[in-house]
Amino acid sequence: MDRFQNKSGFAIESDSYGPPPTYDRAQQTTGSKWAPKNWGKKTIIGVVIAVCVLIAVIIIAAVLGSRANAYPDYSALSYSLEDTYSGTDFFDNFEYFNTYDPSAGFVHYVPNTTAQQYNLTYAGQDSAVLRVDYDSGTDSSTGRFSVRVTSKKQYNNGLFVFDVIHSPYGCSTWPALWLSDPSNWPDNGEIDVMEAVNKATSGNQMTLHTTKGCKMDVKRKETGSVLEKNCWNGADDNSGCGVQGPKDTYGETFNNNGGGIYAMEWRDEGIRVWFFNRDSIPSDIPTDVTNKTAPDPSTWGEALADFPNTDCDISSHFRNQSIIANIDLCGSWAGTKSIYSGEDECPGTCTDFVANNTAAFEKAYWEFASFRVYTAS
Ligand SMILES: *[C@@H]1O[C@H](CO)[C@@H](O)[C@H](O)[C@H]1NC(C)=O
Ligand SMILES: *[C@@H]1O[C@H](CO)[C@@H](O)[C@H](O)[C@H]1NC(C)=O
Ligand SMILES: *[C@@H]1O[C@H](CO)[C@@H](O)[C@H](O)[C@H]1NC(C)=O
Ligand SMILES: *[C@@H]1O[C@H](CO)[C@@H](O)[C@H](O)[C@H]1NC(C)=O
Ligand SMILES: *[C@@H]1O[C@H](CO)[C@@H](O)[C@H](O)[C@H]1NC(C)=O
């Protein structure tokens, strides 16, 4: 009996396979149909098409592969301090927004005189406070007094360092620290640095909102969790492209740690946001605002949120941005029933809560140590 080993090592008895196969004699003598010289026209066209398709597939795969790996060059820029918002004149650099809330909130944004009268904005030596009315006794049955301020100065690129001591939270609240050009929205874009709703127990959300043609379905280097990837305001009910930070980046936990620093770098290569707890602020961010030393984000490690320019031309989507701080109530995010009473388990209806629970708004305040803006030379 003839035994042999095949490649995978099994012993096969050759005689158990019957007679050897017979070959078609005609093919052996006139040449195989696999030999090109014997192909008909149709076969040749078919093969040419198949080869073309194969080449196209290889090219597309290569392009997709290199696109998936594309990433901007965020090499260090040389920054210098341009503006400092701090001290008793903090609010002098802002306009008070005083018309109906475009986000459909149950709120009355008050002018500066009313804000001062009810102490809703207060700028001391060490910090500035912006709050929702909680003890004035004014009628809140059509909405509660609150504040929205917009920096008089507009920016194009820069490194924005926000030193935040306390973030507002509580049922019905929708606070934000953001940048936008509200009279040219969404054309000039929106950059949300801090934003949360209601009890705000699941961390800070950082989001971009733009016109069509800005997507974040690309390679990114960030520690936060990715939410939606299309920044276009017409997609996903204007959710924007968001990134969620961990629990200590907003609300009660953040406040109990004495807050921290949010640094947002906006440059043509992309927009990145870092968060530093009060006790882990990098040494190149001086807490003393009189120290003009410029920070260097290239030394900070991976950002919390990264919005690279790979599939979003940052310089055409973001222009003329003012710094805005506000506390909305209810409205199209915090007040949506599935969020207010669903996800966030807040009582009754949002507007009833705002109208009838004055004392609930004591914690609904921002406290800022300073804002600093650095520009690259
Ligand atoms: C209040 O705002 C008005 C209009 O911007 C401005 O003229 C005025 O100086 C401000 N007053 C205070 C006390 O800030
Ligand atoms: C106004 O608010 C600030 C900050 O919360 C506080 O320090 C100050 O005592 C308040 N002023 C009055 C008159 O209530
Ligand atoms: C300014 O801040 C930098 C960086 O934190 C520090 O190295 C430097 O000593 C500070 N300068 C002064 C005068 O405090
Ligand atoms: C930005 O603001 C400047 C000064 O107000 C204005 O001239 C310019 O047209 C604005 N650019 C855009 C794109 O809105
Ligand atoms: C607030 O409470 C009053 C009295 O309990 C009630 O009549 C009213 O419907 C509630 N809601 C609002 C929005 O005022």
Describe the structure.
This protein has 377 residues and is of the alpha+beta class. The chain folds into 2 domains: 69 residues, no CATH class; 301 residues, Jelly Rolls. The chain has 8 helices and 20 strands. The strands form 4 sheets. Strands 3, 6, 7, 10, 16, 17, 18 and 20 form an 8-stranded antiparallel beta sheet that branches. Strands 4-9-19-11-12-13-15-14 form an 8-stranded antiparallel beta sheet. A two-stranded antiparallel sheet has the order 1-2. The radius of gyration is 31 Å and the shape is elongated. The termini are far apart. The relative contact order is 0.20. It binds 2-acetamido-2-deoxy-beta-D-glucopyranose (5 copies). The site of one 2-acetamido-2-deoxy-beta-D-glucopyranose (NAG) has 5 residues, from helix 8.
Question: How much of the polypeptide forms β-strand, as a percent range?
Answer: 25-35%
DSSP strand count: 20
Rg on CA atoms, Å: 31 Å
Taking the alpha carbons of the first and last residues, their distance comes to 87 Å
Total number of distinct structural domains? 2
Largest sheet: 8 strands, antiparallel
Query: How many individual helices?
Result: 8
Mean pLDDT level: 91
CATH topology of the largest domain: Jelly Rolls
Molecular shape: elongated
Helix content: 10-25%
What string gives the helices and strands in order?
A: EEHHEEEHEEEEEEEEEEHEEEHEHHHE
CATH hierarchy, class of the largest domain: Mainly Beta
User: Could you say which structural class the secondary elements and strand pairing correspond to?
Assistant: alpha+beta
Bound small molecules, by name, code or SMILES, are: 2-acetamido-2-deoxy-beta-D-glucopyranose
* Parts with pLDDT < 50 across at least 5 consecutive residues: 1-29
| CATH architecture assignment of the largest domain | Sandwich
